[in-house]
Amino acid sequence: MSVAQKWGFGMAPVKPPVQQRRTAAVASLLSFFASDLAPRGRLEELQEQLAEVKGLFSRAHRQDQWDWFTVWRALGRPGRRRAQECAQSLGLLRRALGAGEAGAARDAADRLAAAGGPASLRAFLAGPQPLTEGLGYLYVLSTRESPRLLKIGYTERAVEERVAEINAATGVVIPYGVRAVWTVRNARRVESKVHRLLAVWRVRPDREFFDMDYRDAHRLISDHLRSERAEQ
Hints:
Layout: H1 16-34, H2 43-62, H3 68-74, H4 80-99, H5 102-114, H6 117-126, E1 135-142, E2 149-155, H7 159-168, E3 177-185, H8 187-197, E4 209-211, H9 214-228
Antiparallel strand pairs: 1-2, 1-3, 2-4
C-alpha cells in the first residue's frame, strides 16, 4: 500500500491559481467595505467575489471539504458559529446588492462586521495569526482508511502543530486529518467532559481513541458544547 499524500482530510494545500483568486476576492471586498459599500466596477464581478468569500466561511463552518482546515486557519481560526454568521451575512449582502436594496445591504454589512468578518478577511491577507490567549481547541482526527477510529483530544497550541506531532510519531503510516475543531475555553476540562460523554465508545481508558461514527460524535459533542455554552 502506498500513501500518495502527506496530509490528512481538511489539510489539503490550496493550488496557487485558487489561492490567487481567493486573495483577490478578499482584497476587493475589504476595499468595498472601506468605501462605504460603493461598488468599484461591475456589480456582477462584486457578486462573484462575495460568493467566493462566502464559500471560505462556509468551509470553515461546515468543516466538510478537503481544504477546510487550511481555509479556517487562513481566516484567523474563527469559531464555527462566527464563521456561519459571516457566511450568512455575505449571502444576505449579495442578494441585497442584486436587488438594489441599499438598506438591506447596510444591515448585512453591519451584521458581518459584528461577527468579525472584516477581521477574518484581514487575517487572510496578513498570513497565519497568533492564537488568542485563553482559548484552546477540541479536535476530532481520523485517517481516510479508518474513518470510525476517532482521536478526540484538545490542545492549547495551534491544531496543525499537534497534528504534525501525531503524524510524525513512529508507527503512523496514514496521516491523520482534522475532521472537526471547536474553539473553547478551559479546553482540558472540556475534553474530560467529552471523554466521559463518549465513554461507551472509548477503545481503551488510557487512550483518546473512540470507535464510533463521526456523525454521531460530531452531533453529541456539538450538543454538549451548546448546552454548556462552551464553544466560542
